[in-house]
Amino acid sequence: MSIIGKKIEDWSNINTESNHSEFKIIIDNLRKNKSNILKCGGDVSIQRQHKKGRLTARERIDYLKDSQSEVLELGTFAGYEMYEEYGSPPAGGVIVSIVKIAGLDCMVIANDATVKAGAYFEISLKKTLRAQKIALENNLPVIYLVDSAGVFLPLQDQVFPDEGHFGRIFYNNAKLSSFGIPQIASVMGPCIAGGAYLPVMCDKYIIVDGASMFLAGPALVKAAIGQEINQEDLGGSHTHTAISGTADYRAKDDIDALDHIKVMIDNINHKRDKLFDKKKSVEPLHSIDDLTKLFNPSSPNQYNMYEVISRLVDGSQFHEFKKDYGKTLICGNAKINGYNVGIVANQRLVIKDDKGAMQLGGVIYSDSSDKGARFILNCNQDRVPIIFIHDVNGFMVGKDSEWGGIAKDGAKMVNAVSNSVVPKITLVIGGSYGAGNYAMSGRAYEPRFMYSWPSAKLAVMGGDQAAKTLAQIKLSKMSDASEEEKQRIYNKIKLNYDKQTKPEYGAARMWIDEIIEPEETRSILIRSLEIINNQTNLPEPKFSVFQC
Fold this sequence. Notes:
Elements: E1 2-3, H1 16-37, H2 43-51, H3 57-64, E2 72-74, E3 94-101, E4 104-111, H4 122-138, E5 142-148, H5 166-178, E6 183-192, H6 197-200, E7 204-208, E8 212-214, H7 218-225, H8 231-235, H9 237-243, E9 249-251, H10 254-266, H11 305-310, E10 317-320, E11 329-336, E12 339-346, E13 351-352, E14 358-359, E15 363-364, H12 366-382, E16 386-392, E17 394-395, H13 399-403, H14 406-419, E18 424-433, H15 434-439, E19 449-452, E20 457-459, H16 463-475, H17 483-501, H18 503-508, E21 514-515, H19 521-532
Parallel strand pairs: 4-5, 5-6, 6-7, 6-8, 7-9, 12-16, 15-17, 16-18, 18-19, 18-20, 19-21
Antiparallel strand pairs: 1-10, 2-3, 3-4, 10-11, 11-12, 13-14
Helix pairs in contact: 4-5, 12-14, 16-17
């Protein structure tokens, strides 16, 4: 393998101080927004939860995890600046984290009762379904900490009837169980109406004193059949452990319930075979702190993607595939924490090919498409997970590209990504535009995890091009618009479009799993590879017809 990257002192024509200052602004803003989200429903709601003798969702997760182990929380920005007429639900009202319990990686899905009493918005469901999918793909036991008032009724039409709505949770419960993935539910507060099926469809069910589970509450029972009964007798812990036999274990409080879960996980002979080999880990030669100094996140220009890769991979060593061909796409093998990985990344430098033609950085050409498709096939043949690093403007356009077959060549790479069976991890550090997002394994192509830096932008095209196009369409329907009016229309469209390209906007809608800081990237990739390695087997790769 070759050593790649340079010391920061040897970088040329890069304003490291200015770049770092710009990154600091957006990272500080990210931290501020995250801090507000971590306040859950606010101090008053947290105090109310504590007065009931109950922990908050994150406190429960923190108690569950093994000491000295880290929490990988996903979907922190779910629901961010959404549903503003009802008050945006922090983290979508449900906390999703992967933690180690008794040394085993587990997926924890916990309703946040401090946010709208743990009620489900559509984004809460989307986040829950995403967590179940991650658990299924990576063979993770699932723990549900239930404390929810059920569907958020003012928006019930967005939550109840469709295939990706509430019923899908129970469908997934059944499927996870059929694949032998353990599921444990602890009802720690209300568990009402359709939500009552979740704990019953799990392998093991704990109910805490003071919690309740029923298909219809006392008021609805009285209205429906005229029967008067209190909440405890209808669906309390005694009822479901001693009378109905629905629950398996009774806990006196949150801590007792969480201790039950720890014991259950410790007593499971869960498959611990590992899919991928792990060698000795070596730190990169260059500091990961340099990443915030490489380019300006507000107006990125040319930069060398090798400098990013060199700060993520073991020993800064990289074995490059077709180094002198299709140079706007970097492909090669490396190790991260001793795990073999393939890397597909967009080169941001302007390239001159061997025919003397200039190729724009961040653009996928026919040659780079061919190269990327072939490398993805190799990774599947070698059973090596792939890490995609996005800073892509899309595929090349124009007569020469169309005549050269860019559509069919791009389709090869999209085809290869679609049928790839090895785990994929996607990291967006800059632009992720148009079909470039697809070819680089965007959300629709089912990466196991998808992360972004706060400098990321996800859209069909760049804000300036989109705003000009949309403004032209609008102005074509107007007569005699002044230059000021034209500028005002353009500015309004661009402002809205730019907002929609921000990573917070995408993370709010679960298009990405988490926004991470550049300095966290290697450690989060390592943790993600550890989680992926819980999978015990891979299907044989099967690829469909390629256009030649």
